[in-house]
Amino acid sequence: MMKNDLLTIAVITYRRLESLRHTLMSLNTLQLPENLEVEIVVIDNDPEASAKDVVTSLNAKIPITYVQERERGIPAARNKALHYAKNSQYLAFIDDDDVAAPQWLCSLYNQLIASDADIVRGIVSYIFPKEKKYLRLLEIFLPPRANSGDSIQSAATNNVLFKTEIYKRHHLLFDPEFTLTGGSDYLFFKQAITSGCSGVMCREAIVYSIIPEERLTLRWLMRRYIRVGAAAEIAHRKLNLPRDERMKLFFASLQAVVTRMGVHIRKIFSKQPVAIHLLLLLCKALGSIIGLFGLCPKEYR
Question: From CA 221, how far away is CA 297, in angstroms rounded?
């Protein structure tokens, strides 16, 4: 009898015990693809192993393993997940502050198979406090515009499934240069697609993320927009894209943001002065400019 393919779900965590518990509980109620073995690995980036009790106390229906990564930073923890899944055929990532819909994994896997793709990206649906719901129209909280099955140019580890062959074949790792800035996942999947791997969208694969109050202040949002712009520019430099090509990507991204804002402009005006949205767009542009010089805010100190 042939052995079923193995799919590993990786959760990177760092001192988010309560939200991690909710994430794992949602994974415990997943609908599972047929003829596929599924396991979960939790990579704890806390040297004090704070998440161990949360993992070991869970009455899991899916096999779950606790692994500690003492080296600081998300790239190191993500690379630990790559190493752990070296014998798996598929690897999925979800954040430790997200909750998966029951059909999440099946939707990702079915789209991957139907599209014969190497990477499939899902949707993150953000949940806001009532008085801050107007912020859902910001670019960083809006889902990609691509339809299911459409090609994508990168992905993020908050909702993704991919064949492990992509990093084995192309010797890919998450870049430690992005330890304090974030963005190593953007570069990782961008490198994979640039190397010839195929990526598609799946709008039916949904995870839910509750946005904490401290991430909804103007100061935090400005820093995030600057960081996103700068990290993307640094990633494009690492891909050895010519400067004119990087500038084309920058202006194309800015144009897409402005177009998207235009679609929602009436809603934005009815909820909150549009000045905040325009300010954040300028912050992203500023980030792209400072990224040209290899600089990026260190969000994860």
Answer: 13
d(CA 294, CA 301): 18
Give DSSP secondary structure letters for 109-129: HHHHHHHT-SEEEEEEEEE--
In eight-state DSSP terms, residue 52 is H
Residue type, position 67, single letter: V
Task: Enter the pTM of the model.
Answer: 0.87
User: Residues 223-260: pLDDT tens digits?
Assistant: 888 888 888 888 888 887 666 665 666 666 556 555 55
What secondary structure letter does DSSP report for 6?
E
Note the pLDDT tens digit of each residue in 107-123: 999 999 999 999 999 99
The dihedral through the CA atoms of 26, 89, 144, 154 has a sign that is positive
The number of angstroms, rounded, from the C-alpha of 178 to the middle of its chain's C-alpha atoms is 14
| Burial of 301: CB neighbours in 10 Å, binned 0-12, 13-18, 19+ | exposed
